[in-house]
Here is the input.
Amino acid sequence: GATCGQALVEHPDVDKIAFTGDTSTGKGIAKSAADSIKHLTLELGGKSPNIVFADADLDAAVRGATVGIFYGKGEVCAAGSRLLVEASIKDAFLEKVAARAKKMSVGDPLDPKTRFGALSSKSHLERVLGYVETARQEGATLLAGGARADIGTGKGYFMQPTVFGDVTPAMTIAKEEIFGPVLAAIEFEIGRAHV
Here is the structure.
């Protein structure tokens, strides 16, 4: 945790720090490491984008986009949590992405039919659901998921694979790392940036 991490950052025998995580934590590490001029590698607050142009193989791009965000339930630093889609194909593309998300089997990860297991903790599930509510309040359109998944056992912190459309770059889900199964789709046009 923070105590051990801080001790490593400040220790004179540690020459390099590599950290992946929250931006505010990374800033603190950079400030502390500056005192001893340590080498740093920081990957902070990722919002890894997938970009789909109108000339893409749409079915392959749908598979790629859904695997990109839903592999590991979005609890992966490189999860493709932002989907930038060219405006001319946005509706058709997002319809396919949402349909694929709705078909994902949520449940026990030991069941071979399951494609989507539980999130790491109750507090994390509540945090992710908070982002979903914020997205709704900010005007994003819920296309799939958006709620806790009931798998009938009463155990685990399961969430439906979630897809939002009509996301703008100013929205919270477009800017902050959710670290959960929430895809934020933003449209763009060639020659006119929305991103």
Remarks:
- The chain has a mean pLDDT of 91.
- The first strand starts at residue 16 and ends at 21.
- The chain has six helices and seven strands.
- Residues 94 and 169 are 17 Å apart (CA to CA).
